[in-house]
């Protein structure tokens, strides 16, 4: 199993690190690129990576900047990221650069390892999967491809077969946060220095929601975790893959201050008929997950009714039975089977 990094900006030398399951024995295999969420590093996908060769796919989990192994943000980048005073154009350029990094990473990986392109028999090509906050990076990558060099655009058009939003929160897509939403991150009664750690443990829980068929936000369990199953945090999850320091702290201003840019990026990536028109798009969510992820799936469904052109491909949706926000850790085979289904 390989662990290394790829330069994604020749001018700055910025790199993204990754872990790779390696090529399976099948010749025309699909490669799934996964982007992690907040707090938890790319190693949260390790159990899926271990299974990938036996399923005939290649699975690559990359590290977002500034998480371990990837290039930290510069002082100038941090200033743009964390300041609410920056103008929209400056923040938009910052976010587009993050999307370019993901797209260039995939393009470089394709060339470096000579990945098989999409074939007539249904194999080959690449799927881009974002988990939780990582869904924002997926949107940015897809929506910003048109401003990359033409050779990269053409190569990605030949290779990208699917885009998967896996357990997003509405805020990661620039969509409104439901008034019912609660988490430790925004609870002023929790000491500020403990909020990220508390959220990290809480969001690994399972939740018993009253009714999903009615699409009623008031029927979701927003606060109280289920006693039916131990949270993923206590299922052999190494402390090393949870970040509570400066790298994880950059994610909150990234989300909170960027909604004006994230919403058009997600909508362009998912509803613009000129952006990868033949690519499959899907939203996946567990039925025992945190309320914010279910709310996001419903919000995308509502958004699709208004935003998707009549002649464009419909988005596919799936509730994964018995799954929480960390099904890829607790039940990696179930998770990987679903990822392959929508790849």
Automatic annotation (TrEMBL):
Regions that span the bilayer = none
Q: InterPro entries, per this entry?
A: AB_hydrolase_1 (IPR000073), AB_hydrolase_fold (IPR029058)
Highest taxon in the source lineage: Eukaryota
Residues in AB hydrolase-1 domain copies: 35-334
Q: What is this protein called?
A: AB hydrolase-1 domain-containing protein
**Provenance organism:** Guyanagaster necrorhizus
Q: Which Pfam families match?
A: Abhydrolase_6
């Amino acid at each position: 199993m390989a662990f290394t990094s790829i330069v994604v900006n020749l001018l700055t030398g910025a790199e993204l690190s990754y872990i790779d399951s390696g090529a399976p024995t099948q010749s025309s295999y699909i490669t799934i690129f996964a982007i992690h969420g907040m707090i938890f590093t790319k190693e949260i996908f390790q159990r899926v990576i271990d299974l990938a060769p036996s399923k005939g796919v290649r699975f690559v989990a990359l590290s977002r900047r500034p998480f371990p192994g990837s290039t930290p943000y510069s002082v100038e980048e941090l200033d743009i990221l964390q300041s609410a005073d920056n103008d929209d154009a400056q923040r938009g350029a910052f976010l587009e650069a993050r999307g370019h990094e993901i797209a260039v990473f995939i393009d470089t990986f394709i060339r470096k390892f000579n990945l098989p392109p999409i074939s007539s028999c249904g194999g080959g090509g690449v799927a881009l999967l974002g988990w939780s906050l990582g869904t924002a990076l997926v949107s940015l990558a897809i929506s910003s491809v048109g401003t990359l060099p033409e050779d990269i655009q053409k190569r990605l058009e030949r290779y990208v077969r699917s885009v998967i939003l896996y357990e997003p929160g509405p805020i990661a897509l620039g969509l409104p946060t439901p008034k019912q939403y609660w988490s430790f991150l925004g609870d002023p009664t929790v000491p500020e220095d403990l909020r990220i750690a508390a959220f990290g443990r809480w969001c690994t829980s399972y939740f018993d929601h009253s009714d999903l068929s009615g699409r009623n936000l008031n029927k979701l369990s927003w606060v109280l975790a289920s006693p039916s199953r131990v949270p993923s945090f206590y299922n052999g999850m190494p402390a090393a893959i949870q970040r509570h320091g400066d790298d994880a702290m950059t994610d909150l201003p990234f989300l909170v201050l960027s909604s004006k840019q994230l919403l058009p990026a997600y909508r362009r990536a998912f509803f613009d008929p000129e952006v990868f028109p033949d690519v499959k798009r899907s939203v996946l969510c567990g039925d025992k997950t945190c309320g914010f992820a279910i709310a996001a799936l419903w919000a995308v469904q509502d958004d699709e009714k208004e935003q998707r052109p009549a002649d464009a491909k419909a988005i596919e949706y799936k509730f994964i039975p018995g799954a929480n926000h960390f099904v890829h850790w607790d039940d990696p085979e179930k998770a990987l089977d679903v990822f392959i289904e929508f790849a």
